[in-house]
Amino acid sequence: MSQGSALETKAEANDREPGLHMEMERVYYVVTFKPAYFELLRQTASHPETASDETEAVTHRMVVALTQGGFGQDVVDDERQVKERFLQYLFFSSDLDIPRTAEVFDKYFEIDQAEEFVDLDENT
């Protein structure tokens, strides 16, 4: 028996036996940007006069997803992880270097867990 077929057999066994294969679920959150975030951007911009006052008038939202799973993990842990990882995302995508803590997130953003997520590409 080759090494590859032995690994395939283990994987098949894990799929058949409950408890050996943990299904990971994705949770979705809606992040809403607060006016304080746009003020922060204005303060940190190299040319503050280029930041538009119109930005605050428009509500900016973003849907984020996180893979959920594991023992002893609950919604509070997920929310904290989403907050911290979202701030990390902002750092890498925009070079905005603010502390990546839940408390800082709450100052600049609001978070709501999406009640339902529909993937329109999925076959029904």
In total, how many domains does the architecture comprise? 1
- DSSP strand tally: 3
Average pLDDT metric: 75
Characterize the largest beta sheet: strand count, sense, and whether it forms a barrel: 3 strands, antiparallel
Q: State which percent range the strand residues make up.
A: 15-25%
Query: Pairing-aware structural class of the strands and helices?
Result: alpha+beta
Along the chain, the helix and strand elements come as: HEHHEHHE
Strand order of the largest sheet: 2-1-3
N-to-C span: 40 Å
Spatial shape: globular
User: What oligomerization state is this entry in?
Assistant: single chain
Helix content: 40-55%
The residue ranges in which pLDDT falls below 50 over 5 or more consecutive positions are 1-16
Question: Key terms for this structure?
Answer:
18% strand, alpha+beta, 124 residues
Structure description:
The chain is of the alpha+beta class. The chain has one domain. The chain has five helices and three strands. A three-stranded antiparallel beta sheet has the order 2-1-3. The chain starts with a helix and ends in an 11-residue tail after the last strand.
